[in-house]
Design a protein that fits this description.
The protein has about 250 residues and is an alpha/beta fold. It contains seven helices and nine strands; from the N terminus they run βββαββαααβαβαββα. It has a six-stranded mixed sheet with strand order 5-6-7-3-8-9, with helices on both faces. A three-stranded antiparallel sheet has the order 2-1-4. Helix 6 packs across helix 7. The longest helix has 18 residues. Bound molecules: adenosine-5'-triphosphate and magnesium ion (MG).
Amino acid sequence: MLELDDASRHYIVAGRTVAALDDVTQHFSDGSITTVVGRSGCGKTTLLRLLAGLTEPSSGRVQRAPSHSIGVVFQEARLMPWLDVAANVAFPLKKRLSEAEIADRVSDSLSLVGLTEARRALPSQLSGGMAQRVAIARALAQHPDILLLDEPFSALDAFTRRRLQGVLIDIWQERRPTVVLVTHDVEEAVLLGESVIEMESGRVVGRVPLDIPFPREATDPAVVDYRRRILARLVDGAPFSSIQNPRRNP
Ligand SMILES: Nc1ncnc2c1ncn2[C@@H]1O[C@H](COP(=O)(O)OP(=O)(O)OP(=O)(O)O)[C@@H](O)[C@H]1O
Ligand SMILES: [Mg+2]
């Protein structure tokens, strides 16, 4: 269970009230993978922070099974600068697992993101994309029930990004966490989401179910068509209800 019920989050910025999230009701089924798109400042990070319990709603409710563990990848890597890569990945596991289990989790997840060689490096010695991959490894190592990702691949080159998109889908299919992933890249949203949520000015203005089997290819005509239609909606404001399954409505 992961749900927002009429959830709003207001901030006072320079004396003005900003509705970062405005009356959002949204259900995320257990084991689903949902992607979120929308312009900069429309409330995507705020939505993730509420789902993670890092921010309280100003009104409304956030419902989450108390037993569910949460892994979060923030928009920026947020590593502990005094710990090396392996110790950063191990840190959230310290209280829960034995030393041997932690060592396995750390080496598995660093290998998944291609950073085995960098395990002894300090954060100051990493590139932006490497730091981002450490943050991804740290979340994956927790085997969380809920995985919340905020632009997790934004600092990566196209090749590494494609590979990690594949890693995420593999992990999701294997362990079935509930995944919510925010991205600015509409193609990525279509490649990774069972449905794509579109946000505008603190509100959810559309939810598009994508009936395409995983793993998906960027060149699949159905992917290309959804991408084109969602982009048109974001850029031109075409009505969201006009987006339907292109396979059924060629
Ligand atoms: N801690 C905060 N204090 C004040 N205002 C905030 C705070 N966090 C977010 N906001 C405001 O809420 C709105 C939504 O911010 P949010 O970070 O959720 O946007 P976003 O969709 O994630 O944008 P981006 O794509 O640029 O990351 C913005 O107007 C922002 O200024
Ligand atoms: Mg954001």
